[in-house]
Design brief:
disordered N terminus, 41% helix, 2 domains, 344 residues, disordered C terminus, Rossmann fold, alpha/beta
């Protein structure tokens, strides 16, 4: 991944917190931005970028960018990444003006089609040129969508890895892990959008909300520091008895960390625990002890703790880390050491 310059700062950042921008590209990205807009879960500049003027017309994003307006005439890219790329290049000045003056820029896009695959790498490069920390959340197509769409997604993924500071990858083939077998397909897609929106909310909350143990951009950068790898993300929220344990279980069940198994190789792990005013030290200690069973002893833990009255009686846990491609490949072919699965 591209290295983030930690020494870079902007006037006012230390007083108001990082300025955040979220860009949804194409149909999938637009759905995520709509979810964030409806739930009002992130204080950020929300942007929808698309070649299809009809999708833009239905988008709830406050800022809308019609990519390649004169070139595409308001029609989608038709599954052609070359057209999506040309449309983004055509509108690069409008894109730059929309994303500049932010400290963190999230980009959400579905890969495999025309606009997402073609425009996302261009927009990531423009965003990186502003000096911001650029994090991309991308979805990969279902295997039944065919080899051509998968090949286009992989090509776009390779470009994004070179242009973003961190990459969160969600494979649509794992969507079934988010729902029960009897649930409708609409719920599956809604759950996927919600998972991606949660990841964006969690990162923004960690870096902008004051805490008893504060985490900053430097901690986030350290957790994401890896070459050509993937960002691992887990989020869980629970109420009631054993709420800390249940929140951790939900975070570990995330498909973005392979049900917790990807943590067995992580070298740096960012952990953020948040709760209302009723959150106790005993609960926090219990969560961290249980989490220790899923990570190596030598893992560097970056710990953050916050008390937020808005959470009420809920406890929320966020896990963020990263693995290089070599580690991911090794994980695909090997099981975790047996001692990792034993209680300590």
């Amino acid at each position: 991944m591209v290295e983030y310059d930690r020494s870079q700062s902007r006037e006012g950042t230390s007083q108001t917190g990082p300025r955040i921008c979220i860009v949804g590209i194409g149909g999938a990205g637009s759905n995520v931005v709509d979810r964030i807009t409806l739930d009002r879960i992130v204080e950020a500049t929300l942007i929808c970028a698309h070649t299809d003027v009809r999708v833009l017309g239905h988008s709830m994003a406050p800022v809308k960018i019609q990519l390649g307006a004169e070139l595409m005439k308001g029609i989608g890219a038709g599954g052609d990444p070359d057209l999506g790329r040309e449309a983004a290049l055509f509108s690069r000045e409008q894109i730059r003006q929309a994303v500049e003056n932010h400290d963190i820029i999230f980009i959400s896009a579905g890969l495999g089609g025309g606009t997402g695959s073609g425009a996302a790498p261009v927009i990531a490069e423009i965003a990186k040129g502003t000096g911001a920390l650029v994090l991309v959340v991308a979805t990969m197509p279902f295997s039944f969508e065919g080899r051509r769409r998968l090949a286009q997604a992989e090509e776009a993924l390779e470009l994004l890895q070179k242009r973003a500071d961190a990459l969160v990858l969600f494979e649509n083939n794992r969507m079934g892990e988010l729902i029960l077998p009897k649930d409708g397909i609409q719920k599956a897609f809604n759950q996927a959008d919600q998972l991606i929106a949660q990841s964006l909310r969690a990162v923004s909350t960690i870096t902008t909300t004051p805490g008893l143990v504060k985490l900053g951009l430097d901690d986030l950068t350290a957790a994401l520091a890896t070459a050509n790898g993937r960002c691992l993300f887990g989020f869980g929220e629970a109420r009631g008895q054993n709420r800390g344990t249940e929140a951790l279980k939900k975070a570990l069940k995330s498909p973005l960390i392979d049900q917790g198994r990807l943590l067995h190789q992580t070298q740096t792990l960012l952990v953020h625990v948040a709760g209302g005013e009723s959150l106790t030290l005993v609960e926090v200690e219990g969560v961290m002890k249980q989490l220790g069973r899923h990570v190596p002893d030598q893992t560097h833990i970056l710990f953050g703790l916050g008390v937020d009255a808005k959470l009420g009686d809920a406890v929320a846990i966020t896990l963020i880390s990263s693995l290089g491609l070599s580690q991911l490949n090794a994980h695909a072919t090997a099981a975790p050491p047996s001692e990792m699965l034993q209680p300590r």
